[in-house]
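Need residues for this backbone.
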């Protein structure tokens, strides 16, 4: 059974940066496209970023493009989300996700495996 565990969330001021990490176990990491999603209070879970198995292709939502960078290290079974220029609108629980489908599919479809999430709060 694939298990995903996020870390790195916390409280940051507007304009600050955070780096989220996600470790995967129970599966062959290189076989999974990986992604990040987020859910703010009272809102639906939304796509943030995705990265292909080989890390050649990345995808971002318009709201984070140019500010967030997704990356992965297949040797460490880990995926990362470097977040910069954070604003209060980025406040949410951030979820790591994995799927055997392509990364591009994550842009429009919910993936099959999820972590429990890590809280990111951006203060004014």
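Answer:
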């Amino acid at each position: 059974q694939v298990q995903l565990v996020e870390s790195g969330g916390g409280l940051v001021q507007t304009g600050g940066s955070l780096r989220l990490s996600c470790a995967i176990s129970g599966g062959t990491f290189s076989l999974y496209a990986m992604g990040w999603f987020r859910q703010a209070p009272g809102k639906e879970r939304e796509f943030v970023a995705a990265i292909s198995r080989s890390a050649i292709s990345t995808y971002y939502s318009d709201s984070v493009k140019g500010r967030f960078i997704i990356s992965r290290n297949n040797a460490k079974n880990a995926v990362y989300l470097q977040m910069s220029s954070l604003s209060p609108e980025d406040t949410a629980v951030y979820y790591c996700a994995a799927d055997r489908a392509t990364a591009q599919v994550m842009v429009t479809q919910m993936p099959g495996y999820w972590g429990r999430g890590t809280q990111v709060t951006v203060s004014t």
